[in-house]
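Lab meeting, action items carried over

1. Structure of the two-component assembly. Owner: GW. Status: complete.
Input record:
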Amino acid sequence: MRNSGAVLILTFIAILTLQAAGVSPPGKPRLTSCRSPEKETFTCWWEPGGDGGLPTTYALYYHLENSETVYECPDYRTAGENSCFFNKNDTSLWVNYNITVVASNALGKNISDPVEVDVVYIVQPNTPEHVTAVVVHDEQGPFVRVSWEKPRTADTRSGWITLLYQLRVKQEKDKEWEEYNAGMQKYYNVFSLHPDKEYMVQVRCKPDHGFWSEWTQTTYVKMPDYITRERSLWIMITIFFVFIVVILTWTLNVKRNSVKLCLLPAVPGPKIKGFDKQLLKSGKSEEVFNTLVIQGFPPTTDYDNLLVEYLEVYDNEEQELVQDGKDLSEDCMKSKSPSDIDSGRGSCDSHTLLLEKCMDGREGSGSNQHQYSQHGETRWASTESSESQDPEPGSPESANGRGKTWPVVFPSPQPQPHHHYPVGAAKPAYHSVPEILNHLSPHAMSSNYHQLNHQDILQQERRFSKPACRHSQSYNQFNLDGIDTPAPGVAPSPSLEYVEVQRVNPENMLLLRPLSDPNREPEGSDCTREDYSKVKEVTSNNILLLQRDMSHQCVDDYSQADQCTTQQPPHPCKPAVHQSNSGMPQEAIRVMGNGYVDSTVLMPSY
Amino acid sequence: KKISKILISLVICLLVNQGRASDNQRLFNNAVIRVQHLHQLAAKMINDFEDSLLPEERRQLSKIFPLSFCNSDYIEAPAGKDETQKSSMLKLLRISFHLIESWEFPSQSLSGTVSNSLTVGNPNQLTEKLADLKMGISVLIQACLDGQPNMDDNDSLPLPFEDFYLTMGENNLRESFRLLACFKKDMHKVETYLRVANCRRSLDSNCTL
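Predicted assembly:
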């Protein structure tokens, strides 16, 4: 009892002393791994725990699972330091090995934890051998063919072990490897590598149930410099298109004129006869317009004669007409044609003699067309009124007229550069308004004004030359007799002709018919005549433009006989009596008696 | 005429043999593939089992690890390459047959131990596969015997402890693990034997790779 206790105490003291001296039993070793490279042998490695300051020896002991016999490691050297190598004879498959390592030194020993190992499941083959990477040139492009050998120790031929291979590729600068599984074959083709670059290749293998081997040493391969088929195709396409574009541009350049014609068709320039573009460009409008004027047209001479021919003498009936028209005088005074651009020759010149406005207040006695020139000349009405009872036809008014203005003959206010005048019989239908007035004798003037009112003709036909207007006819005759000198300006037409207004069409045109027979009854409504003319307009030169119209239809123009009489204004000019109750503010042509169209004549001063 | 007849019959025999041989080859390849699949299945099962273990269960398992006492321990099987190389093909086939047969019945309890996607669809999937493989191997054996009398004594050996595994509790963690481990090991054995046998009999198989 005492001895054991003393021994214990002594041991304890010894240990303490030893520990104080720095020596101790060995530390616990640890088995790190056991591996079999070919499923025939295997090796185990351990890690020493610490030698405790004293030389320590290690021993590995194992026993199989189904027996208790403990064996020691047969070979400590083959595999190196701290290892135990089991050769073929000592290796049994499908059997668990219970392995422990014991470390022992002078002071004691230490046993590691046991490890159960089944050799079949710890297979880790050696690395593949003889890895080669070769560039193969193909029509599709070059690629790399990597080939290798199996690890020497692995027996795949007998089927004892089945190996699966894997390789990886990357460029030097890349971080990630590109891995490829090669299966059981010993070569692999790597595509899609960039040209002119160097690649690193490594291979490893694994049994069907086991661990991957280590990677082989790096094998380098350099890709040749080549142009991919795809890129070369794109280059060709680009060149082709550039070529096409160049050709097109050159062609367009050569044919630019015709292209221009095609794309931008020429705009036809103005084709006015006598119109000179250059003059227009120069900016002198006067010259331009002057060129448009045809010299000698219309004949501006002998207006007086012309007018004189057509002067009419008014009698008392006219005065009645004048009285009736009195009411309108005020209206007419107030209204002025805004478009009257008469420069001073009297409102007879203008197309838009204020007949329209004057007609507004008229009720049916369209006879009084009171118009005022821009110059404020007195109305006819005033003159008329002053001479209500003057038997002299038109004389009071005409006498009073300080410058009566003839009514505008023409309804159509459009100025036409061309003067359209009828030929032949229509020639005598020129009416030059102002000159007529100027040259008229007071009597003649007074009786020979003719006021044409152009009323609203759209709905109604104008009726002319009522039987009641016969008086005017007589005047006409008077006039005609009185004026027997043909206007020299009318040389082309030696005979004068009265023109009868037959109808005014909706276009505000006065359809005239030359009166070949003075005794002709206006009521006859002779429709067989071909020659009549329609008044087209009054020009700025105070010329009444008549137009011959052959397609006339007979119209009953004589329905408004009374109005005819009432409408006759006591003007020197011979007015054409119109009947229109519409009162529309349009120019109206007044027909007197038979209704010759007469130009407006300025009222001579009464 | 006789000679010609003999020649013709020889030719036919050769052809038939060749046909049979090619058929045999195909069967062998098929058997190898099947057993390989079974082995992979077993490996997956045990992995799933281990993954589903709780940490303390894992510790418990490692401590009491002895994986001995598999059902197939009674079957004498080569345990090394040399032994395997020395064994005849017929022997290898027979051993394989026995191994597969030994698992036919216990495979039913295998499905109970591991509930994973492998066995969900068909609980008897494993048993059916084993049965098919067993039949294939028997055909191969017949082909290999080729008229020779059956000298194998092991055929009549009764399977010891049929309910060997059944006596172990199903809920026992250790037993479950052992069951799975034994299954995996046996499948690997069969795979190895069949591969070796296949490579031995035909040079143009994958063995030369």
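2. GW to write a short summary for the group page. Key points so far: Chain A is about 25% helix and 20% strand. Chain A has a mean pLDDT of 67.
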